[in-house]
Structure formats: structure tokens, C-alpha cells
Specification:
Order of helices and strands: EHEHEHEHEHEHHE
Number of helices: 7
Structural class: alpha/beta
Number of domains: 1
Strand content: 15-25%
Mean pLDDT: 96
Distance between the termini: 38 Å
Low-confidence stretches: none
Helix content: 40-55%
Shape: globular
Largest sheet: 7 strands, parallel
CATH superfamily: NAD(P)-binding Rossmann-like Domain
Strand order of the largest sheet: 3-2-1-4-5-6-7
Number of strands: 7
Length: 258
């Protein structure tokens, strides 16, 4: 098998949570371009259907699905659906994130709501989908964390803008990195790999003051683009990374290394 063949995802089935979101659509696009059948799941079924329709029109295999990580039955129903339709699941990408907090002063209830999805929901869906992977003794779990799970906030980036650094995001993104290591250890004996990607900030027409400061914090002098995450996703999903598990890979232009 050539090295390029090891990156192929032909005949693989993937689920991407938050698959129609800012990073999610690029993750989905990367997986279908590599040959996978991808279920695009989130609470916003309309957006998932629009992306699935676009990709299907380009000849790729994409399926829309509704998923609410705060609802255990929603998670279990999607698990049953995928197994009924595909007979297996090869890859789970935990990309969905709920952002109820915007700043430190927000009500504590917003923090609690965040944990229900970003902590409990992620653990629940991973444990459930891992069962099908365990039966086949193979699978790849990819968790999408953030550089904000690796470092403390730099509040100077936000001065003079309406932007902020909410505490729940830092808490659950850091926890996700170590939960990845937990799953890598727990599921490794079954041939299942668990890895994490920690992207930097993606340019999304933020306040120019923030963007300028952020750019200066990176080695490459720019914010991320959607295309920047595609290669590492395919790498971790494919046999090209067959001996990599428990890793956290920053995709941040050098932000966390500076």
C-alpha cells in the first residue's frame, strides 16, 4: 500500500457533530473528499441538509441528521440509525460546541448549560459510539478542542471590542484534551484510537483590532482559514496515523508555541 493510499477513507463511515458549523463544514468536506460517507449532525437540521445536498450534488456521500447532545435519546437514536443504515461506524468527530456564555459576568446557569452539552454530551456520545467500534476492534475518535484549552486567556486581545473570553469555554476545552487521553487509554486495547485537534482562531470577520492583535501573536502572522484543518482531520481519521493515539495537535499558526 502506498503512502497516499493510507490516507484514503474509502468505505469508511463517519459522524461529525456540529457538522454544518464554522469548522464543521470543512471537517465534513475533508472526510468526504477522502472517500468517507459522512453523517452531518447538529440541532439545526436545515443547515445540515443544505450542506449534505451541496456535497451530494458534487458526487460525495453526505447525510444530514438531527442531533441534540443534551438529549440522551437523540444521541441513542442517531446511533441506532447509523448502524441500521451503514452497519458500522468508523470515525466519530466531536466538533459540536454550545456557547451560552459570552463573558465572565454571565449567570452561573449558563455555565451549567454549557457543561451539559460540552462535557456530559460529549462523554455520552463517545461512549455509545465506541461500543460499535469495539465490536469491530477498530475506529478513530477525533475531538475538536481549542488552543484555549491549552493556555490561559490573553484579555489584551479583546480590549476595545465587544468580544470576550468566557470561562466555560476554557474549562471544557481543556477537559476535552485530557478526556481524549482517557479514551485513548480505555479503548486502545480494542484497536480504537482517540486524538485531539486544538485549532487556533479562524478568521470570521472579527473586530479588526482583535484580528490585528491576534495575527501578531502567531508565527505565521494570520488567523486560521477553514482549509487549514482539513489535512490533520484526514490524517487522524485514516490509516496514515495508525500508531498515533492520545495526542493533541495544535493547528494554530504557532500561537501556543510563541
Amino acid at each position: 500500500m502506498s503512502i497516499l493510499d493510507r490516507f484514503s477513507l474509502d468505505d469508511r463511515v463517519a459522524l461529525v457533530t456540529g457538522g454544518a458549523g464554522l469548522y464543521g463544514k470543512f471537517i465534513v468536506e475533508a472526510l468526504v473528499e477522502a472517500g468517507a460517507t459522512v453523517y452531518i449532525a447538529s440541532r439545526n437540521l436545515v443547515n445540515c441538509e443544505a450542506l449534505a445536498s451541496e456535497l451530494s450534488g458534487r458526487g460525495y456521500r453526505a447525510v444530514a441528521a438531527r442531533l441534540d447532545l443534551a438529549d440522551g435519546e437523540s444521541v441513542e437514536a442517531l446511533y441506532r440509525r447509523i448502524l441500521e443504515e451503514q452497519g458500522k461506524i468508523d470515525m466519530l468527530v466531536n466538533n459540536a460546541v454550545l456557547r451560552p456564555m459570552r463573558r465572565y459576568e454571565d449567570p452561573v446557569e449558563a455555565f451549567r448549560t454549557s457543561m451539559e452539552v460540552n462535557a456530559v454530551g460529549v462523554f455520552h456520545i463517545t461512549r455509545i459510539f465506541a461500543e460499535a467500534m469495539k465490536e469491530r476492534r477498530r475506529g478513530s475518535i477525533i475531538n475538536i478542542s481549542s488552543i484555549q484549552g491549552m493556555v490561559g486567556p490573553d484579555f489584551t486581545l479583546y480590549e476595545g471590542t465587544e468580544m470576550g473570553a468566557p470561562p466555560d469555554y476554557f474549562f471544557h476545552k481543556a477537559g476535552l484534551i485530557n478526556l481524549t487521553r482517557y479514551f485513548a487509554s480505555k479503548l486502545g486495547p480494542y484497536g480504537i484510537r482517540a486524538n485531539c485537534i486544538s485549532p487556533g482562531g479562524m478568521f470570521n470577520y472579527q473586530d479588526p483590532k482583535f484580528a490585528k492583535r491576534y495575527n501578531e501573536r502567531t508565527f505565521l502572522g494570520r488567523m486560521a482559514e477553514g482549509e487549514d484543518i482539513k489535512g490533520v482531520v484526514v490524517f487522524l481519521a485514516s490509516d496514515a496515523s495508525a500508531y498515533i493515539t492520545g495526542a493533541n495537535i495544535p493547528v494554530d499558526g504557532g500561537y501556543t508555541a510563541k
